[in-house]
Amino acid sequence: MQGNQAREIAAQGRQAEAAAIQRRVLERLEAITGPESDETAEALSRLASSLEALGEPAEAARLAARAAAIRSKIRAGSG
Length: 79
Fold this sequence. Notes:
Blueprint: H1 2-11, H2 15-33, H3 38-53, H4 57-78
Helix pairs in contact: 1-2, 2-3, 3-4
């Protein structure tokens, strides 16, 4: 899957390339699993990490906060 490819590319220090792939993965996951799925939250977190490494802390923080909100909602619904 492209998520694995993005991780490999990020590990090589090619964060911009990884972020582009991660954006595509996020779009697909949102369409397939929904905007509030655990898979979407994970994709958001990974993209946030890449954006942080690229020096885009505001966008990274926004995505990380969205991922945290999704996870919180999922936990609240399962308890």
